[in-house]
Amino acid sequence: MKIQELKDKLTESTPIYTNEEINWMLNHVGDPDSLIRDSLVCNSLGKGFLEENFSLDQAHFMIEKIKTKNTLFYKIDETGIPTLTRSFTCLFWDLIIKVNNNSESEYFKILTDSEEKELFKNLLVYLSKESDFTGFSKKYGWFHAVAHCSDAIADGMKSDNFDPEIAHLFLSSTYKMLNRVDRRFIDGEEYRLSDVFIEAFKNQKISNEDFISWIKSFDFNPYAPDLIEFYRFNNVKSLLENVYVKLNSLSLLNVSVKDYIEEHFSKKD
Q: Given Cys at both, which of 1, 49, 94, 146 links 189, Cβ 3.0 to 4.6 Å?
């Protein structure tokens, strides 16, 4: 396959993608070369789905291939290069979630209700299992596994299929992830995660009471000599403060939530 031809299609208004090109893109979703992964594959998939350049058969083929290869959990116990495949698979699924719930898209309802629910659950299980929290690498570019998964879940929150059971799983999975982080977030991961909570409140997927109970479940000591505990506390603090500001700007900030965050997080350094 000629890579240049694929690059040229990014500038075309109505490109036609061959099956060979589609197969190549799917095989390079997590390519270590950021120019291929980000600039070519990610942009081509985004253009193809959002501008409806893929046929329905091609879209179904891609969904089935990514599901069959299970790239969301590719070498889940390994960090580094394998993480790129998992992380950028999240972006693929985010595209599918977007078009699946867009009534004006050619791909509207390309997933059945049960398929979409299963996708949401898989994304949340993945979030709870990911152990590579790299944001950006000078060698490989953006990893951003937590951010990319958060983007997909945030769009999922807008779907009617993101039911109360899945919303509960979201809180559980996020709790597990935040208790596993081995560093301070420095590349905006907590801000992308906060958008999931904002969509949850906007779409009435979690209650204020459940949110406060979730916050109370954390038991990090900001004054502990253990740096990891200090980092984890500050990740949660930064997340909650961002949720606070965004909810307040939307006039959705509950008084109980406001008071709890102020008392137990914002007043602590």
A: 146
Give dist(CA 236, CA 93) in Å, integer: 26
Sign of CA dihedral 44, 50, 56, 61: positive
Verdict on whether the full-model pTM lies above 0.85: yes
Query: Residues 129-159: pLDDT tens digits?
Result: 999 999 999 999 999 999 999 999 999 999 9
Please give the radius of gyration of the chain, using alpha carbons only, rounded to the nearest integer: 19
* Residue found by looking up tokens 């594959």 in the block: 41
Per-residue pLDDT averaged across 262-268, rounded? 80
Report how far residue 23's alpha carbon sits from residue 249's, in angstroms, rounded to the nearest whole number: 44
CB 105 within 8 A of CB 99: yes
What SS3 state is found at 141?
strand
In sequence order, the β-bridge partners of residue 136 are 142
- Token pair listed for 152: 């997909």
pLDDT at position 122 is: 98
Tokens of 86: 């998992």
**For 109, which DSSP code?**
T
How far is the C-alpha of 13 from the C-alpha of 9, rounded, in Å?
8
Torsion sign across C-alpha atoms 14, 16, 21, 22: positive
Buried b or exposed e, range 206-227, using 16+ CB within 10 angstroms = bebeebbebbeebebeeeeeee
CA 29, CA 25: separation in Å to the nearest integer? 6
CB 171 within 8 A of CB 165: no
CB 123 within 8 A of CB 149: yes
For residue 220, what are its two tokens? 């990090």
